[in-house]
């Protein structure tokens, strides 16, 4: 399992705010690495985890929604709906802080899968939100930059 990088220190926040590096060879992302990322995400009760959140600068993330796992390498949003939805978000890298974030209700993302194949995924609702949150991470952006307001919840950490 990996150790999560959080904004706890100035240094780690600077790291999280760096853009991740394009993966030139998708084959360099091993199944063992992806499996450890999934384990780390699940153990932390997360629904998405970008590689820079575990200290790797490569452009990839894992996510889970409705029992389905997603692993996307070099993901990009290629289309966003004009329609937006506001919902509460939290982040494994920003423990105990939550806030409402407006995001596109629907997106189409494109990336490469573990076999090096280009995939396009059309996502709505929570899955569209997860994808936007994770791609933000890879661009060095945190949800606290987008939230209309923030509040602290002491106790159980969930997102
Ligand atoms: Zn996050």
Cross-sheet strand order for the largest sheet: 1-2-3-6-7
The CATH homologous superfamily? Peptide deformylase
Return the average pLDDT rounded to an integer. Answer: 95
Radius of gyration: 15 Å
Q: How many strand elements?
A: 8
Describe the structure in your own words:
The structure is a single chain. The relative contact order is 0.21. Strands 1-2-3-6-7 form a five-stranded antiparallel β-sheet. Strands 4-5-8 form a three-stranded antiparallel β-sheet. It is built from four helices and eight strands, in the order ααβββββββααβ. The chain has one domain (10-152): Alpha-Beta Complex (Peptide Deformylase). The protein is an alpha+beta fold and 159 residues long. It is globular. Zinc ion binds next to helix 3.
Which characteristics define this entry?
159 residues, alpha+beta, Peptide Deformylase, five-stranded antiparallel sheet, three-stranded antiparallel sheet, 4 helices, 36% strand, globular, binds zinc ion
Compile the SSE list and pairings:
Blueprint: H1 10-16, H2 31-43, E1 48-50, E2 60-65, E3 68-80, E4 84-91, E5 94-104, E6 106-112, E7 118-124, H3 125-138, H4 143-146, E8 151-152
Antiparallel strand pairs: 1-2, 2-3, 3-6, 4-5, 5-8, 6-7
Bound molecules: zinc ion.
Zinc ion binds next to α3.
Quick overview of this protein structure:
The protein has 159 residues and is of the alpha+beta class. Helix content is 24%, strand content 36%.
């Amino acid at each position: 399992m990996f150790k999560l990088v959080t904004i706890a220190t100035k240094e780690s926040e600077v790291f999280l705010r760096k853009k991740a590096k394009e993966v030139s060879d998708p084959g360099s992302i091993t199944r063992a690495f992806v499996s450890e990322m999934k384990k780390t995400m699940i153990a932390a009760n997360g629904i998405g985890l970008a590689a820079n959140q575990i200290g790797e600068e490569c452009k990839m993330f894992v996510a889970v929604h409705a029992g389905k796992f997603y692993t996307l390498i070099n993901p990009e949003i290629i289309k966003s709906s004009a329609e937006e939805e506001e919902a509460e978000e939290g982040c494994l890298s920003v423990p105990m802080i939550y806030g409402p974030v407006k995001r596109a209700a629907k997106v189409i993302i494109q990336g490469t899968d573990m076999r090096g194949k280009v995939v396009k995924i059309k996502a709505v609702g929570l899955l569209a939100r997860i994808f936007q949150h994770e791609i933000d991470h890879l661009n060095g952006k945190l949800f606290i930059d987008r939230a209309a307001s923030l509040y602290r919840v002491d106790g159980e950490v969930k997102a």
